[in-house]
Each structure stands twice: as structure tokens, then as C-alpha cells.
Amino acid sequence: MMNEGYIKFTHLWIKKPAAIPSFMLEEINLVRNELKKLGMVGKIPDGPSFGNLSVRLAGTSFFITGSDTGGFDFLSTDQIALVTESIVSSNRISSIGLIAASSESMSHAAIYQSCEDVKAIIHFHHLEFWSHFLGKLPTTSSDIPYGTPELAMELGRMIREKNQSSVIVLGGHHEGVISYGTSLQNAFKQLLALHESINEKTRNLFVK
């Protein structure tokens, strides 16, 4: 997790407010608050933040939580970036915002480019979830590190293959998991159901 938060792509950044619609910002904060309660979004003491959320605007452009914002309790427009262009093959992102786009923007971009039905993405960290579902859910290769064009291309390939699960474990990104869906609420409900299934199995062990 300690590499989280460090941008690895070429970034063309226009530093002005990202005009995110109020209803999108409200949904981001609503879902993000629940993720923070579960410890899936946050900040390492004296270290980087982890976890990010995005919502598609139009085409392949999308709003995403800004770099190193995991420690914020509530996000305003100042902590949101609009990714206007992303070229996976050349590892280049263009964005608008008072803050730099998340270090995971390239992965989000690859997913949006691969499936027009995806409207929102959550990238979260949770050791128990990651360990439990590693290799059980669709999992990226452990040889592919986070924040690279290789990871973005691998995610794009997995999305195009239309796996039954909309949750992907990042094999080369310790604790990292991605959930995507038709909305942030939809993406959150999918990961929450899986998270609760772990607790249910634990309870059943004690019952026996």
C-alpha cells in the first residue's frame, strides 16, 4: 500500500475548478463516507492516502477524487478532478481541477474505455477482503504493479471479457480492489455484499 498516491503517468493539468454537478458530488461523499467507515478509504499516518472514486461524465471523461484526499472527511469541488482525456498506450492523462487527478486515474480510464455501461468505479483497500478473494474473484497478475499502463491494459482486457463479477482484485497491488457498476451506489452494494459474506462465513465457523 505504501506506493499508493504517487502519480506515475504523464499529466497535462489545467489548474482551475472542475465543475462537478452537485448531485454527483453528493453521491461521491455519501458512498465515500461508508467506505471510510469500513476502513476502505483513508490515509496512512505520516504516509499517503488510499482509495478513490470516480463517476463518468460523458464519453470517456470522468470526475475522480483528487490525489492524496483519503484523509479528508468530506470532499468539496476543490478535491475533485475532471479527466478529459486519457491515452493508455502512452500513459498520458489530461485533467482539469484545483487538485491533481488520483494516481489511479489511468486504471479508471481503461475501464471506462472498455465498457460504456460502466458509470462509476471504486478503488478501495482492505487487507481481509483482498486476501480472501485473491484468485477467487477475477484477479490481475501479481507481476503487474499499480499505476502502470500494463495494469490499465490488463483491466481493460478483463472488462471486455465480461467477467460475471464486477469486482476485480489487484494481484500486484497489495490490498487493492476495484468495484465498478452503473452508479457508485451499485458499485458499493456489490463490494459490500462480498465483504459481508466474509463476516458471515466467520460467524458460521463459530456456530459450528
Unreliable spans are: 1-5
Tally of DSSP β-strands: 10
The coarse silhouette is globular
At CATH level 3, the topology is L-fuculose-1-phosphate Aldolase
Roughly how many Å is the radius of gyration?
A: 16 Å
Strand content: 15-25%
As for the number of domains, it is: 1
CATH class: Alpha Beta
CATH superfamily: Class II aldolase/adducin N-terminal domain
In percent, how helical is the residue content? Answer: 25-40%
Could you give the order of the helices and strands? EHEEEEEEHEHHEEH
In order across it, which strands form the biggest sheet? Answer: 1-7-6-5-4-8-10-9
Give the name of the CATH architecture: 3-Layer(aba) Sandwich
Tally the helices. 5
Could you describe the largest sheet, including whether it forms a barrel?
Answer: 8 strands, mixed
Span of the ends, CA to CA:
35 Å
Structural class, by secondary structure, is alpha+beta
Summed over residues and divided by their number, the pLDDT gives a mean of 90
